[in-house]
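seq as requested:
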Amino acid sequence: MGEASGRARRPSARLDAEGTPGERSGNTLQPTAFDRKLPRQDWEGDDFTPGAGGHYVTCMDTSVGRDVAYATNGKVDKDGRVYRASIAYDPDGITLQQARSAVDAVAHRSFIIPVAWNDSAVVRHLNKGMGLVITGAYDTIPREYRYQPKADFAHAMFASHRSMGSGNVRVWDALNPNTNDYGRWYPLPVILAFIRSLGYAVGYVPLDIL
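struct tokens:
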């Protein structure tokens, strides 16, 4: 993954407040989807990775942390910096393979890296609410959905599910500094274009049985 920098801001598009079967939202209840708790936002900007020179390099670590929290229904909910600390020193972004080692070390869970996926495989997975760490070129995301102008780097995010009502996808962008958020809605075509840009480099933690 490449580096991110600059002051993060809330995108102008309205990405919250949308219903889907099995989901609730509100100020007093933690939102759910498919009867599974949606995790709070984790921001990579407060990880202060040693050797990174102040750059944000833990988008993958942050995203797998959100995936584990979702897959375990909140039982294992760790900041991205905990996953980074579990692997060998690396001052840059980590790979899906390194993320798999971190998930094993921190959460004692498997992290599956599928091969030969395409749009249909991604959509089927999200339709079932199975959660997916997604990677892509950040500049494929339209500006109104990004948290900073600088976008010439590879990036990782977490997507929990697709709304059966609108078809939109619930996404946690590690550059979102609002840790009171529970993800935001993105149009499916935006997410698919993002994933295509790095050849469907994705991964997921199998869901715990509720």
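Residues 5 and 55 are 6 Å apart (CA to CA).
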